Amino acid sequence: xxxxxxxxxxxxxxxxxxxxxxxxxxxxxxxxxxxxxxxxxxxxxxxxxxxxxxxxxxxxxxxxxxxxxxxxxxxxxxxxxxxxxxxxxxxxxxxxxxxxxxxxxxxxxxxxxxxxxxxxxxxxxxx
Length: 127
Known about the structure:
Layout: H1 2-35, H2 61-64, H3 67-75, H4 77-83, H5 86-95, H6 113-123
Helix pairs in contact: 1-6, 3-4, 3-6
């Protein structure tokens, strides 16, 4: 029994190490997308701290919004804006854009799903 516990502990530890290194790599890729004006172009309108630029500051955004919502938002912000869910309503209030029919957020290019996930991994580092 002790042998199996040791093996399971070792496998769990290895899994944690592997996920940490992959998360770091994905966050680095996400930072590249965030900063690249020809791809994500996020830095043009967003501060990585609390400061509002054109869009809100992104520090702690992964604590404020669910990952699934962020994935949809980054992939197609206008569709999510039009859906006007409770997260969008909150965003509109915070950004003082309640009566705006369109969002100003337009990535430079349509991001691949992996790029969206990488950007979210990067945003999760902004604590």
